[in-house]
Amino acid sequence: MTVLLFAGVAERVGARRLAVEVAPGDRVRDVRDRLVAAHPQLEPFLPTLRYALDEEYADEDTPVPAGATLALIPPVSGG
Amino acid sequence: MTVLLFAGVAERVGARRLAVEVAPGDRVRDVRDRLVAAHPQLEPFLPTLRYALDEEYADEDTPVPAGATLALIPPVSGG
Amino acid sequence: MLIRVTDAPLDPSEAIAAVASPAAGAIDVFLGVVRNENLGRTVDHLVYEAYPSMAEREMEAIAREACARFGVIDCAILHRTGRLAIGETSLVAAVSSGHRAEAFAACRWIVDELKRRVPIWKKEVWSDGEEWIEGPEALERPAPAPPR
Amino acid sequence: MLIRVTDAPLDPSEAIAAVASPAAGAIDVFLGVVRNENLGRTVDHLVYEAYPSMAEREMEAIAREACARFGVIDCAILHRTGRLAIGETSLVAAVSSGHRAEAFAACRWIVDELKRRVPIWKKEVWSDGEEWIEGPEALERPAPAPPR
């Protein structure tokens, strides 16, 4: 699946977009754990990270549909 | 002295500006009473009328300086 | 501190530009607009009359007091007079401040205070009559319930 | 309901025109502006980054919820991205309503809600460094007391 990275997360990882393998039945947290294993720089962001599946906020428990896009959302600071 | 009338008061009296004789020691209420005697149409406005002397709100008790301008201020409705 | 009573159309951009400051993180702008209905009656247009010199004096006093009371950077208050059609802007109040809480609070306070003490009067004109509106609350009362 | 994330300069007049209505007696407009200082540090400029499609989706949800929750007529929310200099406008939120209380309340709520959940991020750039700001409260905390 496609994973989108933004702001400090993107800078830290050095990429704005990653491709991750997804197994049937995977939830957001499974994809997240795989990402952290491949990019340990993500670790410090985890306590405040939120997730969006196809442009909607999702829980760690949300199942990942085939072909979905996951976005890692650090604390927002618009306005 | 010059007395300025506005809005419904001006329409009712049929004038936007009146000249009134003032005696030394007169207070706002003395001028007001003289106005009402000359223009009884002012009577219904009295309960809610405010006064300004030279562009500042004044009490009925405020002494009227020589050459001052008195304005009769019905309830305001700007905005 | 931009303060003006005028019979020319009001431009909110002018008020925004007037309060702009490098220290401002927030600007709140309020527009009073002529609506097509009041107290259940259909409004054709409004006529605003002012005691212009005193109105500007009171508006300036309100702006100064808002700056002091809310610690905001700058305020602008513009009020239009004369005949105004539905949709036209009668009032523009703008406040700049470091953060948004003070900008909202000061702008709201300015509008409330203006309606309380600035010598400006509004006449409503309907298709079949007209009336000078007395006091700000006449405008803020809810419309009466429709007849059963 | 005008909703837009753009790297072009924002025009408050466009937002005001978008929410105009014959039934509107009040329009409140909020501008978020780049200020020269935050938490005691001198800011050179800001960089805003968005997840644009999701940001517009959240902004639209916020506008719809504001209309329902506060009974206002219409809302517009515009947010700018890219590099912004001091004094430039990053956010415009506009609300039209029958009376002023709802316009102020809804506009304030929209800004609070946007800062809570719209995926847009701000990087502060100083003369000697830069930092992605995490969370809205970083901006709203008072500046630290000066050293004695």
Key features of this structure:
heterotetramer, A: 79 residues, alpha+beta, 5-stranded mixed sheet, 2 helices, 23% helix, C: alpha+beta, Aldehyde Oxidoreductase, domain 3, 4-stranded mixed sheet, 4 helices
Describe the fold and architecture:
The complex is a heterotetramer, with two copies of chain A (79 residues) and two copies of chain C (148 residues). Chain A is α+β, with helices and mostly antiparallel strands. Chain A has a domain at 27-56. Chain A has helices at 7-13, 28-38, and strands spanning 2-4, 17-19, 50-53, 56-58, 69-73. In chain A, a hairpin with a 2-residue loop joins strand 3 (50-53) and strand 4. The N and C termini of chain A lie far apart (31 Å). By secondary structure, chain C is of the alpha+beta class. In chain C, the strands form three sheets. Chain C has a four-stranded mixed β-sheet, sandwiched between helices. In chain C, strands 7-5-9-10 form a four-stranded antiparallel β-sheet, with no helix packed on it. In chain C, strand 3 (37-38) and strand 4 form a beta hairpin. Strand 2 (26-33) of chain C pairs antiparallel with strand 2 of chain D, so a sheet runs across the interface.
Count interface residues per chain for the largest interface: C-D, 35 and 35 residues
Number of strands of chain C: 10
- By DSSP, the count of extended strands of chain A is 5
Count of DSSP helices of chain A? 2
Q: If you consult CATH, what is the topology of chain C?
A: Aldehyde Oxidoreductase, domain 3
What Rg of chain C do the Cα atoms give? 16 Å
- In CATH terms, what is the architecture of chain C? Alpha-Beta Complex
Strand order of the largest sheet of chain C: 1-6-8-2
Per the principal axes of the C-alpha atoms, what is the gross shape of chain A? globular
For CATH, the homologous superfamily of chain C is named as Molybdopterin biosynthesis MoaE subunit
In whole angstroms, how far apart are the ends of chain A? 31 Å
Number of domains of chain C: 1
Backbone shape of chain C: elongated
Strand content bin of chain A: 15-25%
Class from secondary-structure proportions of chain C:
alpha+beta
Report helical residue fraction of chain C.
25-40%
